[in-house]
Design goal:
heterodimer; A: mainly alpha; two-stranded antiparallel ribbon; 7 helices; about 70% helix; about 5% strand; B: mainly alpha; about 95% helix
């Protein structure tokens, strides 16, 4: 047992552990809605995000630093939608902002070095159940907006302009599948990026620990380079946390643009 | 891989709590707070734009006023110049008239004086002739003992005086 504890399981960090509600309270005919560590980090994310945005609500004419930070993010999302969708894009700012900030905060919170004080961060964006739901919401918005605005003309999305007539069936089929794959690629991209980074960090940390356990020579040879690499990869992961949130929001806005304007 | 191994037991909880918390994020933050933040930004942008427009308008106004002032000044200068030249012309005409009048007066005085001089000269010459003729008669009587008429004497005197 002691020998097993020394081993680091890189996948253990993704385990969902119920905190409470496994009994009757949140158990409906086998559908268990227990409040888990994953749900807890969603709650923490939501609370911190609320505090962050509420801090920018002072509505001062000359903004303070906090207000400036919040306005930077709203302006960033606003500009992105303006650039990708145009004037009609402004009405999606609440959704894209929520999506971007929720994912960004979740990604960053998952990277917090809270392990040193005994709290284990849980990156719920590394679960495809979560990223899948977000992707399905985005995809549903695209479908609803597309059919609402264009009706059956929305299907012309599958036939790009200037397609030669004999090519139409083949192109339409390919476009149709690429369209259907969108929610999966959206969900998988975020999930895989988050999981890969965390696994990599855990694997490297196991190198560090095992190296130290194996003696001074191995520690110098393995642990120190691994630790240096961990620091670099941690920085990279912070970048990836931002980039993946951005990519999710950007692709969603691009898909919304398709729904708003067809091709 | 817990994501797959635990899928059956945890998917409902994951989806449920995600919808709760993301829903809260969307409705409270996205729909509630973000529009207010963006309103503040829009308000500030508008105020800045208004201030800039007001400043621009004020500058335009100042430039316009300066332009009108310059125009008025130019007009004033032109009218002042006209006034000066008119006064100059009037003065010149006046003095010319006065000079002409004075010249005329002088001319008449001169003419009168000349007439008077020539009169005086003539009468003086006559007197001289008369005196000369009497003297001639006297001289001829005393020297030659002959009597010369007054007419002959004055004729001879006239001839002699013509040669003077």
């Amino acid at each position: 047992m002691a020998a097993e504890e020394g081993k680091v399981d890189p996948m253990h960090q993704f385990t969902i552990e119920p905190l409470f509600g496994t009994e009757k309270l949140l158990d409906f005919d086998g559908i268990n809605l227990a409040f888990t560590n994953s749900a807890m980090w969603m709650a923490i994310t939501t609370v911190l995000l609320t505090v962050f945005v509420a801090g920018g609500l002072k509505r001062e004419l000359v903004p303070g630093r906090w207000q400036m930070a919040v306005e930077f993010f709203t302006g960033f999302i606003d500009d992105m939608l303006e650039a990708n969708v145009g004037k009609e894009g402004r009405k999606y700012v609440p959704y894209i902002f929520s999506l971007f900030m929720f994912i960004l905060f979740a990604n960053l919170l998952g990277l917090m070095p809270l392990g040193v004080i005994g709290v284990h961060p849980f990156t719920f964006t590394s679960h495809f159940t979560v990223t899948g739901v977000l992707a399905i919401i985005s995809f549903a918005i695209v479908l609803v907006v597309g059919f609402w605005k264009h009706g059956f003309k929305f299907f012309s999305l599958f036939v790009p302009h200037g397609t030669p007539l004999p090519m139409v069936p083949a192109i339409a089929l390919i476009e149709f599948f690429s369209f259907l794959i969108r929610p999966f690629s959206l969900a998988l991209r975020l999930f895989v990026a988050m999981m890969a980074g965390h696994v990599l960090l855990k694997v490297l940390s196991s190198f560090v620990i095992d190296g130290i356990n194996a003696g001074v020579g191995i520690a110098a040879l393995v642990s120190i380079p691994s630790f240096a690499l961990m620091i670099a990869i941690s920085a990279l992961e912070i970048l990836v946390a931002g980039i993946q949130a951005y990519v999710f929001a950007l692709l969603t806005s691009l898909y919304i643009n398709d729904a708003e304007h067809l091709h | 891989m817990p994501q797959i191994a635990q899928l059956a037991e945890t998917y409902a909880s994951q989806i449920f709590w995600l919808l709760i918390f993301f829903g809260f994020t969307f409705f409270v933050i996205g729909r509630g707070m973000v529009p207010k933040v963006m309103d503040t930004v829009a308000l500030r942008d508008k105020q800045i734009a208004d201030d800039l427009a007001a400043a621009q308008a004020a500058q335009d106004g100042a430039e316009e006023q300066e332009e009108t002032w310059r125009q008025r000044e130019n007009e004033n200068r032109v009218s002042a110049q006209a006034l000066i030249s008119e006064a100059k012309a009037k003065g010149a005409a006046n003095s010319e008239k006065k000079i002409a009048a004075a010249q005329k007066r002088l001319d008449t005085k001169l003419a009168e004086a000349e007439v008077r001089i020539s009169d005086a000269h003539t009468s003086a010459m006559k007197e001289v002739e008369g005196v000369a003729a009497e003297a001639t008669q006297d001289i001829v009587q005393r020297l030659a003992g002959a009597k010369v008429t007054k007419a002959a004497a004055s004729k001879a005197v006239k001839e002699a005086l013509a040669h003077v």
